[in-house]
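Page 37, continued from 36.
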């Protein structure tokens, strides 16, 4: 009986043709390492996009029942399983998988090919990965999650959905959340419902995907707080100009869950951060358990998509005056809105004024520096890949 390994998830994530070819070779290598027979394993690619590999489990020394048990965690359809999921299951089955049975020809990103293939499954799930597994567009999935969050229909899964919308979640959580998106009634594991230890000190970690960039490169920032708090990310350019990157008009709610990595910009958020000016750039992360915005930072997202702070040194020196002016402006605006009984900013005002319950005010800060250089005169910056 024939079984299939699918590369549809990786294809949906726009992996290059070369990467997909390398992963198909890695899957064939995995099958040889799983095989307990001396006979050659016949592997055939199926379809115009070569998104399926077919084989017969008995040629590996497996019964179909044994194979289906191994592949169960990544099954997309009867007899079809995600190749990366099966690779992860194989690596977790040392009684079946023996790397010494077949040597790897070429590593993938410095890793053994089967390990590299498995990492596509074991790494935290991003919004793009989640959408690929569901066969959806990432922007559509992001909008669906945002709509349900605004409706309050996620129940105990709300923090999980927020974490996916803003960054990544672990695979076991994604499996449950995907079922919830499909309308299933699923209980969140008890350990995931346990609130963070309030005695744990508030810490914030921030990183970028590299420390050196070229002008024109995209910047992606990852931040993780040890406890639930309000996060603000501020970029300071080489000339001292400071801009709030998070929250913004694209992502207005800056409440983040403790222990969850937040990524900005995340897939589906509708914007890019492009590095232009060469020199040393600083990214500051500020997290506060009760105050949604740092003192002196006054958001007006009706007028500007990102809050501009001007010169960073001048901003720090005039924080108190800025805070007083912002509060006076907000009070005047509030009185005007009340007179006109306008309600369109109710949700944003709630975010601005809400405090996390039962938490003393604490604040943590961190920063990371990156270097941006220009492309050599004889080399032009490469065009971004089309998708």
């Amino acid at each position: 009986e024939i079984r299939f390994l699918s590369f549809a998830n990786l294809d949906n994530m726009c992996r290059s043709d070369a990467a997909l070819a390398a992963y198909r070779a890695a899957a064939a290598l995995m099958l040889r390492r799983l095989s307990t027979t001396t006979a050659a394993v016949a592997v055939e690619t199926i379809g115009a996009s070569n998104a399926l590999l077919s084989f017969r489990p008995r040629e590996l020394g497996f019964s179909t029942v044994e194979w289906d048990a191994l592949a169960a965690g990544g099954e997309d359809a009867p007899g079809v399983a995600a190749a990366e999921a099966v690779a992860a299951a194989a690596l977790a089955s040392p009684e079946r998988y023996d790397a010494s049975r077949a040597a790897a020809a070429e590593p993938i990103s410095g890793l053994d090919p089967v390990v590299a293939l498995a990492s596509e499954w074991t790494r935290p799930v991003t919004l793009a990965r989640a959408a690929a597994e569901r066969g959806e567009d990432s922007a559509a999935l992001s909008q669906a999650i945002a709509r349900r969050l605004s409706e309050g229909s996620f129940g105990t899964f709300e923090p999980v959905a927020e974490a996916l919308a803003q960054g990544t979640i672990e695979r076991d959580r994604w499996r449950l959340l995907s079922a919830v998106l499909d309308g299933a009634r699923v209980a969140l594991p008890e350990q995931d419902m346990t609130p963070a230890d309030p005695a744990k000190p508030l810490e914030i970690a921030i990183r970028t995907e590299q420390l050196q960039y070229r002008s024109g490169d995209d910047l992606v920032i990852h931040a993780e707080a040890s406890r639930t708090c309000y996060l603000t990310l501020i970029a300071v350019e080489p000339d001292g100009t400071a801009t709030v990157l998070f929250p913004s008009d694209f992502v207005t709610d800056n409440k983040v869950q403790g222990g969850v990595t937040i990524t900005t910009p995340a897939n589906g958020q509708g914007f890019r951060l492009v590095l232009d000016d060469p020199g040393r750039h600083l990214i500051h992360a500020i997290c506060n358990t009760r105050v949604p915005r740092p003192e002196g930072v006054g958001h007006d997202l009706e007028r500007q998509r990102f809050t501009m702070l001007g010169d960073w040194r001048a901003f720090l020196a005039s924080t108190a005056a800025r805070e007083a002016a912002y509060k006076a402006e907000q009070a005047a605006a509030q009185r005007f809105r009340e007179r006109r009984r306008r309600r369109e900013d109710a949700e944003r005002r709630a975010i601005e004024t809400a405090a996390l319950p039962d938490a003393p005010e604490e604040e943590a800060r961190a920063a990371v520096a990156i270097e941006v250089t220009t492309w050599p005169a004889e080399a032009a910056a490469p065009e971004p890949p089309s998708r």
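Residues 346-359 have pLDDT under 50 and may be disordered. Flag for discussion at group meeting. The chain has twelve helices and 17 strands.
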